[in-house]
């Protein structure tokens, strides 16, 4: 017993305790956010009582995520790392905050203006996924999603995890007041507007505490160009490859024989599977600035072990209950959904592998192996996109889930080998300049979503 107490004290005074503290604060806010969006999906499904209509709701959300991937330019992850790397210079950090927020604002405005025009250029499959009468609502959702994502990245870089917690909880509770009547009256459109209102309220709550830092100058244009061209570029390529592999195949479901029905099932399983990834995402987001600051120091390897072990432990703690409760969890959306509990089990198994892969990605990125991860993601996405049409035609959402599961296995093996090599070859101490560059290069895969 004495030994256990000693070990517990060591844990509480270790790097793991600091990481867990940040993760818990961010996790409470993220939990509230996901709980609201999960409940919103269930509310829409129960209100429309039709797989086709819920499929339309799902397709709009997926299309918005896909377009946000292109227009966001990796700014949220870039902001988090650039701001954390500038922590030693308060004046430069404030300029970085203002510059990144301005870039996020510009991206949101451009999207709001351009999406209605771009919607007419979408291919047939995506036109079904984004009906013309829902384009205005989707445009508003996309704009506030970009703003909320950028603000979250800024607050992570500033280590304002308590603010993230308060914003997530307060917005989730307050948004119930307008979400229920909107969905009851407007159905699918009401669900999209409710999600938009929630993200807008959350953005305001995140922005308010840092309003005093918005006055002052910006980074020089040369530094902004470096931020976009050197730091954001690999972030964007990495995210582009991953999200193409994750978002396009589900949208292809809309073109299958029972397209919107299959997409509705996929979205239901996808919302529930976030229970597996939730804690791991929170741990990873809290670990990003810590890994950026620790690279080049003896504690880096300890931070690596802590972040990987904590992420996997958190994922396993939710994965097993999801497997056991797969049928009742799917049944929350309706009786017909409960018949597809195996879909949730396969999707959750894929996410478990994905959590480990994401934790290993963080290690590689903190060691400046950014383009290696981008190439690996691109190869995986190419395989998935090549297989998706045939797989979907043969078995719909269930076959697609199995394809994700077995194609990610080889990726995980390669990632493990790369991490072992990095841990063997990276020196235990590197120069201050190299550490700073690594802190700027580190970025978190947008694999698990918000």
Describe this structure as you would to a colleague.
This protein has 450 residues and is an all-alpha fold. The protein has one domain (13-441). Helices cover 84% and strands 0% of the residues.
Order of helices and strands: HHHHHHHHHHHHHHHHH
- Low-confidence runs of at least 5 consecutive residues: 123-127, 430-450
> For the terminal residues, how far apart are their CA atoms?
40 Å
Computed structural class: mainly alpha
- Compute the average pLDDT: 77
What is the makeup of the main sheet? none
List keywords for this structure.
single chain, 450 residues, mainly alpha, 17 helices, 0% strand, globular
Write the layout of secondary structure elements.
Elements: H1 2-12, H2 15-48, H3 51-72, H4 75-85, H5 90-119, H6 124-129, H7 135-157, H8 161-186, H9 188-207, H10 221-252, H11 259-294, H12 300-324, H13 326-331, H14 335-338, H15 341-366, H16 370-425, H17 432-441
Helix pairs in contact: 2-3, 2-8, 2-9, 2-11, 2-12, 3-7, 3-9, 3-10, 3-11, 4-5, 4-7, 4-10, 4-11, 4-17, 5-7, 7-9, 8-9, 10-16, 11-12, 11-15, 11-17, 12-15, 15-16
């Amino acid at each position: 017993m004495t030994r256990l107490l000693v070990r517990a004290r060591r844990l509480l005074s270790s790097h793991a305790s600091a990481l867990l503290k940040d993760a818990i604060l961010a996790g409470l806010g993220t939990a509230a956010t996901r709980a609201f969006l999960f409940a919103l999906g269930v509310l829409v499904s129960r209100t429309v009582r039709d797989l086709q209509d819920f499929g339309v709701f799902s397709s709009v959300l997926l299309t918005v995520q896909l377009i946000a991937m292109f227009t966001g330019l990796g700014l949220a992850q870039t902001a988090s790392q650039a701001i954390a790397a500038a922590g030693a210079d308060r004046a430069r950090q404030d300029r970085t905050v203002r510059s990144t927020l301005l870039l996020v604002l510009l991206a949101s405005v451009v999207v709001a203006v351009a999406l209605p025009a771009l919607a007419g250029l979408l291919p047939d499959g995506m036109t079904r996924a984004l009906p013309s009468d829902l384009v205005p609502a989707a445009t508003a959702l996309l704009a506030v999603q970009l703003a909320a994502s950028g603000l979250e990245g800024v607050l992570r870089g500033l280590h304002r995890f308590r603010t993230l917690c308060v914003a997530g909880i307060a917005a989730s509770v307050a948004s119930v007041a307008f979400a229920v009547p909107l969905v009851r009256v407007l159905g699918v459109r009401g669900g999209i507007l409710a999600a938009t209102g929630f993200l807008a309220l959350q953005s305001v709550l995140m922005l308010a505490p840092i309003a005093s830092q918005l006055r002052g100058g910006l980074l020089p244009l040369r530094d902004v160009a470096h931020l976009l061209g050197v730091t954001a570029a690999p972030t964007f390529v990495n995210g582009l490859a991953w999200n193409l592999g994750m978002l396009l195949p589900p949208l292809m479901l809309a073109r299958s024989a029972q397209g919107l029905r299959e997409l509705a099932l996929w979205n239901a399983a996808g919302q529930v599977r976030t229970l597996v990834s939730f804690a791991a995402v929170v741990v990873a987001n809290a670990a990003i600035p810590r890994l950026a600051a620790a690279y080049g120091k003896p504690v880096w390897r300890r931070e690596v072990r802590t972040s990987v072990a904590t992420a996997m432990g958190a994922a396993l703690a939710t994965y097993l209950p999801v497997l056991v409760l797969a049928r009742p969890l799917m049944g929350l959306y309706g009786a017909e959904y409960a018949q597809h509990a195996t879909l949730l089990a396969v999707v959750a198994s894929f996410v478990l592998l994905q959590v480990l892969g994401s934790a290993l990605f963080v290690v590689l990125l903190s060691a400046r192996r950014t383009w290696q991860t981008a190439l690996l993601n691109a190869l995986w996405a190419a395989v998935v996109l090549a297989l998706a049409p045939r797989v979907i035609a043969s078995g719909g959402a269930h076959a697609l889930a199995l394809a994700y599961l077995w194609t990610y296995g080889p990726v995980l093996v390669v990632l493990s080998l790369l991490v072992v090599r990095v841990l063997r070859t990276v020196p235990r101490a590197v120069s201050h300049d190299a550490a700073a560059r690594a802190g700027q290069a580190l970025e978190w895969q947008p694999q698990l979503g918000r």
